[in-house]
Amino acid sequence: MAKPNSFTWAKSLLVVALWASVQVPASAVERTTIVVWGLSLGADTKGDEAVIHEFERVHPEIRVRLLSMGAGRMNPQKLMTAIVGKVPPDMINQDRFTISDWASRGAFRPLDDLIARDEKTDPLCPRKEQYYPAAWEEATFMGRLYGIPTGTDDRSLFYNKTIFRQRAADLKAAGLDPKRPPRTWSELLAYSKVLTEFNKDGSLKRAGFLPNYGNSWLYMYAFLNNASFMSADGRTCTFYSPASEEALKFMVQGYDLVGGYEEAKKFETGFQGSENDPFMIGKVAMKIDGDWIIYSLSRFAPQLDFANGPPPIPDDRYFHRGKFAHDPEQFVTWIGGFSYCIPKGAHHVEEAWKFIKFATSTEGRLLNMRAQRDFDRKRGRVFITRVQGSIETNRRMYNEFKPPDAKFAAVLKQCIDLMDHARIRPTTFVGQLLWDEHVRAMENACLKKMSPKAALLAAQEKVQRELDEEFQKERFSTIDLRIPSAVGLIGAILGGILLYAGYKKKNLGKLSRHEARWSYLFLAPWVIGFFVFTLGPMLASLFFSFTQYNVLSPARWVGPKNYVDLVTYDKENVLKAFSNVLYIAGIGVPLGLITSLAVAMLLNSAVRGMRFYRTLFYMPAIVPSVASVVLWMWILTPDPGKGLLNSIWQSTLSQWLGAPVPGWLQVESWAKPSLILMGLWGAGSGMILWLAGLKGVPTTLYEAASIDGASPNQQFWSVTLPQLSPIVFFNTVMGFIGSLQTFDSIYVVTQGLGAGPSDSLLMPVYHLFTNGFNYFKMGYASALAWVIFIIILALTLFQFKLAPRWVHYEAEK
Question: What is the pLDDT of residue 139?
Answer without folding.
Answer: 96
